[in-house]
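In response to the reviewer comment on reproducibility (Comment 2.3), we provide here a single inverse folding case reported in full, input and output, so that an independent group could reproduce the run without further information from us. The structure tokens appear first.
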């Protein structure tokens, strides 16, 4: 039987947990706030943050929900980008292109002291997504967070005990009521952190943040994120690449991971012990807490030319802590023997892709060649065209009656696709030493 004091403590803890989980109908305030998630107080950085925290609040809902997210711009720091927009990464936006978020493609940016409500249903999608600023390079300054659509009829639900870390999932006894295991989340975010605002950036990221915490090279031994588990239980961890630039080799020492979802699509079960997580990628993995009670390293080692790899001083790391283990950093070592090869990952449903099973086996084939130039600043080209933001969003140009791709601005950057056809994009590598420039492509549709 819980005492009144312990019960009130539980209620306070519940409120704390719920404070960073919002949706599907909510306000999302974007503002500047000084934070030092890598523990370097001397370089405390005025980030662009959703809800004033990093990562931003987790936005959740269920399959079939209609999301109404009112984004309120309260940005004030003039050394950073002050307009904003939000992209809901992985959500198809079928029939709701206006809510997709890329500035000057589907909308004008939200200027300071104004707001915009993103209103869209999620009828036929479930799984792990994320959201981020889609105004220039702004999301690199911190505007990013997890977005999860739960499936009440998840076909894999019987394979794990915990998903979202709700309090009801744990044994609420007098003995354990004051333990932090009660309020843990099973969402694991991987992100890069900088000490310079994005418009002025000259350096690689100084730290990898796992669930918003990390350590810099030669930095302080600041707190690391702790993922708490109970021996014998199975967890659905949702691993999300919130990165601005690097990819990460992700491992949980001494534990295998059974992949059941990739980028919002259920997959056939596939067992690995490490996986490369690129910017924007998401995986759901089932992990069984089947090792002895102890602390185990969680590692997210960045790609060498885009981050600062290595684990000295606890960098690029978090802690998996079993209930009953001492509050201490792990001493584990691990060598992966079963890495993820993406060609071995298969969709659970609709596994056969459209078109014919050979290159060029589509109705329309579009080659995509991209390149980066420095003249003097970085400039990207796709098929010999550099995208420059038009004065009127492309979506608004279409709504005003301009339908031909050759008449839309920016010239040469827009491709018109026929309806109900299979489209093949051939994306060529750039051959540059750092893996080539990052890029995004947008699909706009109109009925």
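Designed residues, in position order:
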């Amino acid at each position: 039987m819980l005492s009144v004091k312990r019960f009130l403590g539980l209620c306070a803890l519940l409120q704390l947990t719920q404070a960073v989980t919002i949706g599907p109908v909510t306000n999302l305030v974007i503002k500047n706030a000084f934070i030092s998630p890598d523990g370097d107080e001397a370089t405390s950085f005025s980030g662009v943050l959703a809800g004033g925290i990093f990562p931003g609040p987790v936005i959740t809902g269920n399959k079939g929900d209609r999301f109404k997210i009112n984004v309120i711009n309260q940005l004030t720091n003039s050394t950073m980008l002050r307009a904003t927009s939000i992209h809901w990464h992985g959500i198809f936006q079928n029939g709701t292109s206006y809510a997709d978020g890329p500035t000057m493609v589907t909308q004008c940016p939200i200027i300071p002291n104004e707001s915009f409500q993103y209103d869209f249903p999620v009828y036929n999608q479930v799984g792990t997504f994320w959201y981020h600023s889609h105004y220039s390079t702004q999301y690199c300054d911190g505007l990013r967070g997890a977005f999860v659509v739960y499936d009440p009829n998840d076909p894999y639900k019987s394979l794990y005990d915990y998903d979202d870390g709700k309090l009801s999932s744990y044994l609420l006894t007098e003995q354990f009521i004051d333990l932090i295991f009660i309020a843990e989340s099973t969402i694991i975010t991987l992100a890069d952190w900088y000490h310079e605002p994005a418009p002025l950036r000259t350096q690689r990221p100084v730290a990898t943040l796992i669930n918003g915490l990390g350590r810099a090279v030669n930095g302080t031994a600041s707190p690391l994120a702790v993922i708490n588990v109970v021996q014998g239980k199975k967890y659905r961890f949702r691993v999300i690449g919130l990165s601005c630039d690097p990819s990460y080799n992700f491992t949980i020492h001494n534990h295998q991971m059974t992949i059941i979802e990739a980028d919002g699509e259920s997959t056939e079960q596939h067992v690995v012990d490490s996986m490369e997580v690129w910017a924007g990628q998401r995986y759901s993995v089932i992990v069984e807490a089947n090792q002895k009670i102890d602390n185990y390293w969680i590692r997210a080692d960045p790609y060498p030319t885009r981050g600062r790899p290595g684990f000295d001083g606890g960098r690029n790391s978090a802690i998996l802590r079993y209930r009953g283990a001492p509050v201490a950093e792990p001493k584990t070592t691990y060598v992966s023997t079963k890495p993820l090869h993406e060609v071995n990952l298969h969709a659970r449903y609709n596994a056969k892709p459209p078109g014919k099973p050979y290159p060029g086996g589509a109705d329309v084939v579009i080659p995509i060649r991209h390149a980066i130039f420095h003249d003097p600043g970085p400039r990207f080209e796709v098929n010999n065209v550099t995208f420059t933001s038009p004065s009127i969003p492309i979506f608004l140009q279409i709504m005003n009656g301009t339908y031909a791709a050759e008449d839309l601005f920016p010239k040469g950057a827009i491709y018109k696709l026929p309806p109900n056809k299979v489209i093949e994009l051939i994306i060529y590598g750039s051959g540059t030493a750092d893996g080539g420039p990052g890029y995004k492509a947008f699909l706009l549709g109109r009925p």
